[in-house]
C-alpha cells in the first residue's frame, strides 16, 4: 500500500499563535520560557494533526523560530562574528539577533540579509559565508525535536536541507561550492546521530535541482551524495525536490545513491512517468500530487487513475505527498467561520490536505474502471500574449514627451512620492471600528476624506510637485482591489508566513474577474479638488494582483491576469475622464512571478508585460503613466521593465544604488523613459540628511540624464510616522531644489 507523508507543515499555528508569542516575547511582555512552551505546543499539535489524519510518517525539523534556513546556519556554525556576543548565555536571543538584529537581551546588530525563497512569497535569511568558513555541527535542537516527537509516539521522518541547496543559498564567497568538502562531515555526523535515535528515513531537501544549474554544481551532487549516501548506514535518504521540473537534472537525481526521490507533480507532472522508469529497484518514489501552494481541493479521482498502475507496481515504494512543504498553505480551513459553504467545500488548507493524502491512499487501494489519464504537461500560457500583441498606446514615448511636458509643466527633477502616507493608529482604529460596524459608513468615509485632505495639505506645504491622495482607504494594495472587483473571495484566516512573524492573507481568485463600478475615482477626484498641483491616481497592477493572490487552477494564470487588466483599464479610463491625468500602476510583484527556469521567462513576460500595457493602452498621449517597483536586483528583468514602457518608473534603489545604476550603465540607452530611483530608504526610521540626498542625486544624475530624472523615496510611506515623513520629504524636496540650481 502506498505510504503518506508531507514535506513540512506550517509553523505559525492555526490562529497565528507563534506570531503572537514571538512578538510578545520581543516586546518584553513574556518570558523566554513562555515562548519555548508555545513553540512546543505548536509542534506537538502539528505532529498530532499528521498522525490523527493517518499519515504514515510525521515530519519533524520543519519548525523554526524564524526561518528554516537560519536553523541550518546555526546547526552548521555559520554565524558571523558580530552575532557571537552573548550567545553562550542566551542562544535563542542570538538566533533572533541573526534574524532581525535585535532580541530582548544583547546589543542590536545588523541583521542577516533576507531574500525570497525560490519563486514564493516566503523570505529566508541568507547564510553569510567567509573565505575561512569552517563548519561545526550543533544539532541539539533537531535531535530534541525528534525525541519530543518520539515521546509523543510518532514515527518520525526528520527534514534537513541538503548540502548543495544550503550552500547555493548563501553569499559572501566567490565559490560556495568550494566549501562543500568541509560541510559534508557535518551531514555524516548528523546522520549517525539520527540513526542512533532510531530514525529510519531522513528527507533531504534539494530544490535547486529544479534550477538551471551550472555544470560544476550538477557534478558536485554526484560526489557529495556518494559520500553522504554511503555513510548514511541504516538510515534511508529521501531526496526532495520541488517548485520546478527537474528536466536535465531528473536523471541525475535518480542516479544518486539515495533511497528515494520526491518530485513536485503539480509543477512537473509530465516527469512522473519518466521518474517511475528511472526508479531503482529498491528506491521509493514520492509523488507530490496535492498542491502545497494553493488552496483548492485536489482532484483525487484524477490522481487515483494516474497513480493506480504505479501503486500496483510499487506497493509501499510509492509515497504520496503534497507537492512542496505546506509552509506555503494556510493552516486550517476549520478556522474559517464566515466563508459560505459552497465556497468552503472547494477549499483545502494544510490540515485538509493531510486528509486528502489519506483519502487518496485508500482510493489507490480500490479498483478503478479506467486508468488512462493524460497528464497535461507544463504551465504554458494560452492565447493571451497573442491577443495582446498590438494593444498599446498609439504614440511612442518620444512622441508623448512633448505633449506631456506641455500639459504638466513640471520643473526639472520633479518630486513625488510612491503613494501611501502614514497609516496612523487612529486610521487603523477607525477602520477596525468600521469593519466591526461600530461606526457608520458615513463616519468612516468622512474620516478618510479628512485623512486625504490632511495629506494634500502637508504635501503642498512641503512643496512636492506631483501629489498623491495617500491611500488612506486601503489597508493592503491587493486586498483593497480584490474587495472591489468581482471574482475574488477574501478569507478570514487564510494566513501564510511571509517572513519571521509576518504573515500575508492572499485573496482567492474564485472566478472570472470584472469591475462592477469605479474603485478609486472618487478618492482621487476628491484629492484633486483640493489642490492645483496634479494628483497622481494610484492603482495596483494586474500582475501584482495576480501574483499576490491564490490563482485558479482551471484556467491559465495569464487569463486571470488579462481579466484583471481589463477591469483596470476601465478604471484608468474613468480616472482619465475625471481629470486625473497622471496615473501610477504599481507592479512590485512583477519579478515574483518569473519562472525559475530561464527557458520559461519569455512566455511569462510576453503575457505579464502585455497585461500591464493593456491597462493603459487607450489613454491619451498627454496622460502620464507611472509604475513602481521595489526590489533592487532587477538586472535580469531589465528588458521586461523597459518594455512596460511606462512614462515614469519609480524604483527602489537607496539600499543598493550602485547596483541599480550599473544596471543602467550596462545598457546602451540606459533606461529609455523617465525614472525616479528612490533616494532614501523608507524601511528605516532614520531621517536622511539633506547633504546626503544632494550627493546621492548628483551621483544618480551622472548616469541618468537630468531631463528624465525624478526625485522620490524608495517606496510607500505607510509604515512610517508623520514626523519622520515630514522631515524626510522636506529634506528630499530641498535636495532637489539645491541640485536644480546647480545644473
Ligand atoms: N503605492 C503603494 C504604496 O505606496 C506601493 C506599495 C509597494 O510598492 N509595495 O504603498
Ligand atoms: Zn514599493
TrEMBL record:
Residues 413-737 form the Cobalamin-independent methionine synthase MetE C-terminal/archaeal domain. Its EC number is 2.1.1.14. Gene3D superfamilies: 3.20.20.210. It catalyses: 5-methyltetrahydropteroyltri-L-glutamate + L-homocysteine = tetrahydropteroyltri-L-glutamate + L-methionine. L-methionine binds at residues 418-420, 471, 586. Binds 1 zinc ion per subunit. Transmembrane segments: none annotated. CDD domains: CIMS_C_terminal_like, CIMS_N_terminal_like. GO terms for biological process: methylation. The active site is at residue 683. 5-methyltetrahydropteroyltri-L-glutamate binds at residues 16-19, 116, 502-503, 548, 592. Belongs to the vitamin-B12 independent methionine synthase family. HAMAP family: Meth_synth. This is 5-methyltetrahydropteroyltriglutamate--homocysteine methyltransferase. It comes from Microbulbifer epialgicus. The gene is metE.
Amino acid at each position: 500500500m502506498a505510504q503518506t507523508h508531507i514535506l513540512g507543515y506550517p509553523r505559525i499555528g492555526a490562529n497565528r499563535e507563534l506570531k503572537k508569542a514571538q512578538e510578545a516575547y520581543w516586546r518584553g511582555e513574556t518570558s523566554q520560557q513562555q515562548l519555548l512552551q508555545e513553540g512546543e505546543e505548536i509542534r506537538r499539535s502539528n505532529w498530532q494533526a499528521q498522525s490523527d489524519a493517518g499519515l504514515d510518517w510525521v515530519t519533524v525539523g520543519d519548525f523554526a523560530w524564524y526561518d528554516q534556513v537560519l536553523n541550518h546556519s546555526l546547526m552548521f556554525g555559520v554565524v558571523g562574528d558580530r552575532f557571537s556576543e552573548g550567545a553562550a548565555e542566551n542562544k535563542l536571543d542570538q538566533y533572533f539577533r541573526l534574524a532581525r538584529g535585535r532580541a530582548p537581551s544583547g546589543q542590536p546588530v545588523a541583521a542577516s540579509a533576507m531574500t525570497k525563497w525560490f519563486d514564493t512569497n516566503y523570505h529566508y535569511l541568507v547564510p553569510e559565508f567567509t573565505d575561512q568558513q569552517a563548519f561545526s555541527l550543533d544539532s541539539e535542537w533537531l535531535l530534541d525535536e525528534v525525541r519530543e516527537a518520539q515521546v509523543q509516539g510518532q514515527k518520525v521522518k526528520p527534514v534537513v536541507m541538503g548540502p548543495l541547496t544550503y550552500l547555493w543559498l548563501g553569499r559572501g564567497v566567490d565559490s560556495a561550492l568550494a566549501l562543500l568538502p568541509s560541510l559534508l562531515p557535518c551531514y555524516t555526523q548528523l546522520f549517525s546521530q539520527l540513526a542512533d535515535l532510531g530514525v529510519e528515513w531522513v528527507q533531504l531537501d534539494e530544490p535547486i535541482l529544479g534550477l538551471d544549474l551550472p555544470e560544476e554544481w550538477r557534478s558536485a551532487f554526484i560526489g557529495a551524495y556518494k559520500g553522504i549516501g554511503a555513510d548514511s548506514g541504516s538510515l534511508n535518504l529521501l531526496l526532495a525536490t520541488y517548485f520546478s521540473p527537474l528536466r536535465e537534472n531528473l536523471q541525475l537525481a535518480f542516479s544518486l545513491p539515495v533511497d528515494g526521490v520526491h518530485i513536485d507533480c503539480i509543477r512537473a507532472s509530465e516527469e512522473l512517468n519518466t521518474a517511475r522508469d528511472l526508479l531503482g529497484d529498491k528506491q521509493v518514489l514520492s509523488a507530490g500530487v496535492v498542491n502545497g501552494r494553493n488552496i483548492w481541493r485536489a482532484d483525487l479521482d484524477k490522481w487515483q487513475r494516474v497513480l493506480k498502475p504505479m501503486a500496483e507496481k510499487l506497493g509501499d515504494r510509492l509515497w504520496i505527498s503534497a507537492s512542496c512543504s505546506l509552509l506555503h498553505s494556510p493552516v486550517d480551513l476549520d478556522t474559517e467561520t464566515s466563508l459560505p459553504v459552497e465556497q468552503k467545500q472547494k477549499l483545502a488548507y494544510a490540515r485538509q490536505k493531510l486528509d486528502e493524502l489519506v483519502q487518496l491512499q485508500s482510493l489507490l487501494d480500490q479498483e478503478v474502471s479506467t486508468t488512462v489519464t493524460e497528464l497535461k504537461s507544463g504551465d504554458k500560457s494560452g492565447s493571451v500574449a497573442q491577443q495582446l500583441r498590438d494593444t498599446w498606446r498609439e504614440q511612442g514615448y518620444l512622441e508623448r514627451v512633448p505633449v506631456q511636458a506641455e500639459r504638466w509643466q513640471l520643473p526639472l527633477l520633479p518630486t513625488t512620492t510612491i503613494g501611501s502616507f502614514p497609516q496612523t493608529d487612529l486610521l487603523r482604529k477607525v477602520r477596525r471600528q468600521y469593519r466591526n460596524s461600530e461606526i457608520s459608513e458615513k463616519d468612516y468615509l468622512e474620516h478618510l476624506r479628512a485623512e486625504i485632505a490632511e495629506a494634500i495639505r502637508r504635501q503642498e506645504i512641503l512643496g512636492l510637485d506631483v501629489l498623491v491622495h495617500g491611500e488612506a482607504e486601503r489597508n493592503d494594495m491587493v486586498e483593497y482591489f480584490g474587495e472591489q472587483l468581482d471574482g475574488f473571495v477574501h478569507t478570514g484566516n487564510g494566513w501564510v508566513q511571509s517572513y519571521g512573524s509576518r504573515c500575508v492573507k492572499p485573496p482567492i481568485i474564485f472566478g472570472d474577474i470584472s469591475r462592477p463600478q469605479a474603485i478609486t475615482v472618487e478618492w482621487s477626484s476628491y484629492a484633486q479638488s483640493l489642490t492645483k498641483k496634479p494628483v497622481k491616481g494610484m492603482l495596483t497592477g494586474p500582475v501584482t494582483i495576480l501574483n499576490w493572490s491564490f490563482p485558479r487552477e482551471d484556467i491559465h494564470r495569464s487569463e486571470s491576469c488579462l481579466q484583471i487588466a481589463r477591469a483596470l483599464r476601465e478604471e484608468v479610463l474613468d480616472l482619465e475622464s475625471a481629470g486625473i491625468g497622471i496615473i501610477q500602476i504599481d507592479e512590485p510583484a512583477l519579478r515574483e512571478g518569473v519562472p525559475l527556469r530561464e527557458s520559461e521567462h519569455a512566455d511569462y513576460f510576453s503575457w505579464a508585460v502585455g497585461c500591464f500595457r493593456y491597462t493603459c493602452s487607450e489613454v491619451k498621449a498627454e496622460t502620464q503613466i507611472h509604475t513602481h517597483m521595489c526590489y533592487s536586483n532587477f538586472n535580469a528583468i531589465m528588458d521586461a521593465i523597459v518594455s512596460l514602457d511606462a512614462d515614469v518608473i519609480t524604483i527602489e534603489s537607496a539600499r543598493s544604488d550602485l547596483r541599480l545604476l550599473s544596471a543602467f550603465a550596462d545598457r546602451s540607452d540606459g533606461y529609455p523613459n523617465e525614472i525616479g530611483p528612490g533616494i532614501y530608504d523608507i524601511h528605516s526610521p532614520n531621517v536622511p540628511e539633506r547633504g546626503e540626498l544632494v550627493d546621492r542625486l548628483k551621483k544618480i544624475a551622472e548616469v541618468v540624464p537630468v531631463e528624465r530624472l525624478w526625485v522620490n523615496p524608495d517606496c510607500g510611506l505607510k509604515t512610517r510616522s508623520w514626523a519622520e515623513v515630514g522631515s524626510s520629504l522636506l529634506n528630499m524636496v530641498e535636495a532637489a531644489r539645491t541640485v536644480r540650481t546647480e545644473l
